[in-house]
Design a protein that fits this description.
Portal_Mu; 352 residues; 11% strand; 9 helices; 3-stranded antiparallel β-sheet; mainly alpha
Amino acid sequence: MAVCEILWNTRNNHWVPRDYEWVDPRFLKAEKPTLRQFRLLTDDEPVDGVPLTPGKFIVHQPRLKSGLPLRNGLARLVAVMYMLKSFTVRDWWAFAEKFGIPVTVGKYGPNATEEQIRVLIDAIASIASDAGCAIPQSMQLEMQETASRNNGGALFREMAEWCDAQISKAVLGQTMTTDNGSSRSQADVHNQVRMDIVRWDARQLANTLNEYLVRPYIEANYGPQAHYPRVVLRISEAEDLKALTDALVPLIDRGMRVQESELRDRFGLAEPDDGADVLHPVSAGVPGDMAMNRERVALNREHPDELAQMVDDALRDWQKTGEAFTNPVLTLAQECDSFDDFLKRLPELQER
């Protein structure tokens, strides 16, 4: 739950919000007996408080889980994990201090004087901060090692990471967008879960603004209305523009009409100014020495290689002579009414 006070600017006839001031939850008290409405503690009412003035406060109560609003906060949900992690980190530091710092042991003989012992202690203190001691040479000091000395650091790390994972699940609904080591497909799925929570939070916040800000603003300036404008919070998500381009290019090549302004908005590109230098597509031009006949300028043709170019150059001066032989046959076929008539008159072409 969160409460903000609206500071209205009432100097003009048109009331507008001038600023918003966050209200400390310590000055809020749940109203008995429902514990669902809240009152503001003031100097005049420091115990029971006064009701929140309509149109002056924005009260946001997100629906995180069922139950009373006092128990809906995420801090209450993750408090145990936070406490366990704090204890784990504290013990981890104690473990590192005990087993990570070498112990300096200084021994003095049985005939050492107090001055010699003091000099030994000063020498130990000068080379070690806390891990040092001075004992008689006849005494023994042993450090009892536990089985977890070698892998104790990994144990504390796993406990701290487990607590972090539980907190991430409670707040974000997943863990892979904050940790490493996951695959791309798994991270995409977890990111989708996170975005679902973001969109849900945006919808709830928009409903709060429409109820506690937009409606009072309209009623204060224009009076009660049958329908009120609504605020919509849009969530900008990263779009795979390369995938969009790969999908659009074949469709555009096949004749699909796409509006340029829409694509410019998707790519974040502005309309070029008049006279500005713009980029042009690079097209493979046809060499200038190629003959511009019907065969060469045919659409969708492939550019010939060097061998085909040499053949075309060799046949450039040749002329087609087949038409002198085929045209009379075609003319005769058009004049005949049947195939038998065509066969009878075909020898006439040989006599010409």
